[in-house]
Design a protein that fits this description.
Spore Coat Polysaccharide Biosynthesis Protein SpsA, Chain A; 8 strands; 50% helix; elongated
């Protein structure tokens, strides 16, 4: 019979003072229930990751840690963004846990799905992805753009789980292997499938945010999507090359057309066509240079090999 696994639940937090007390309340009930049922070890904990919050998030985490033995936390030296904060929590938690579940602090991820995740882990799965069963509570714009993003990533050849964000279970051995991934530009939901090992999915319905504001406004969502595309696929570069050849073929046609017009003495006509062509080609060149520049910029970031996160405080050591 498999021994009771030590579970750590990693929760990145950025300015979450409005929701932390309720999150703690619900997670405490869930963890105690799992411990009492002997699904997980009594050594299991929830690890909050303070991502350089500007409000009282870290003070609240420290107070929770003093009152509740089930809760611990780490604080990054400054704000590094959700993906880096999550990575910092995962890499820290794996030193204490047999299995880690990552989730957001806003209570949108259904904590009851943890039961099914742990069941699938005990069945031999090293990664269990939390997948949204529906997007009924999203706005039409968000639903269309989010689902379109996953489909577009699939077209580009990126192996990511459809409608999965960062609610997932990972075993210690997966995280040990994941530590060998050194890239600075993080897109975790696309990186974990690269590790391999046996995996499964758990479907759940995402809830409304309990309190506070979303930390992913449209601008951040677009930047995140663009990072995901350029970090995992070179197809945009190949598309530029293909487009270049197509334009070359078109230019031969235009050259023949221009020669015919010259020989027939009709050289004044076509000014509109010429000006439109120049602006179109110029715009295409600028876009192409921008895409190439994005990849060069990522190479620049990776070559510096700066640390992806720095932990200033770790309550687990106390």
């Amino acid at each position: 019979m498999m021994k009771e696994a030590v579970l750590y639940v990693v929760v990145p937090c950025y300015n979450e003072e409005e929701v932390l007390e309720e999150t703690t309340k619900q997670l405490k009930l869930k963890m105690e229930d799992l411990i009492n049922k002997k699904v997980i070890s009594s050594k299991s904990k929830v690890m909050y990751v303070n991502d350089g919050s500007k409000d009282k998030t870290w003070e609240i985490i420290k107070n929770i840690n003093k009152k509740e033995k089930l809760f611990t936390g780490i604080s990054l030296s400054r704000n590094r963004g959700h993906q880096n904060a999550l990575l910092g929590g995962l890499m820290t938690a794996k030193e204490y846990a047999d299995v880690v579940i990552s989730m957001d602090a806003d209570l949108q991820d259904d904590i009851n799905a943890m039961d099914e995740m742990l069941k699938k882990y005990k069945e031999g799965n090293d990664i269990v992805y939390g997948v949204r069963s529906a997007r009924k509570k999203d706005t039409f714009f968000k639903r269309v753009t989010a689902e379109g993003f996953y489909k577009f990533m699939k077209v580009l050849g990126v192996d990511c789980v459809y409608n999965h964000a960062d609610y997932r279970l990972t075993s210690k051995r997966v995280l040990d292997e994941f530590a060998n991934f050194k890239e600075v530009n993080l897109f975790l939901r696309g990186m974990f499938p690269l590790v391999g090992f046996k995996s499964d999915v758990v479907y759940y319905e995402r809830n409304e945010r309990f309190a506070g504001e979303s930390k992913y406004p449209l601008k951040k969502m677009l930047n995140f999507a663009w990072d995901g595309i350029t970090s995992f696929s070179v197809k945009p570069l190949r598309f530029i090359c293909t487009l270049g050849f197509l334009i070359l073929l078109v230019s031969f046609g235009i050259m023949i057309y221009s020669l015919v017009r010259k020989l027939t003495g009709n050289t004044v006509d076509g000014w509109t066509f010429l000006s439109i062509s120049i602006w179109f080609i110029g715009s295409l060149q600028m876009i192409s240079i921008g895409i190439i520049g994005e990849y060069v910029g990522k190479i620049y970031s990776e070559s510096k090999a700066r640390p992806r996160f720095i932990i200033s405080e770790n309550l687990e050591r106390k």
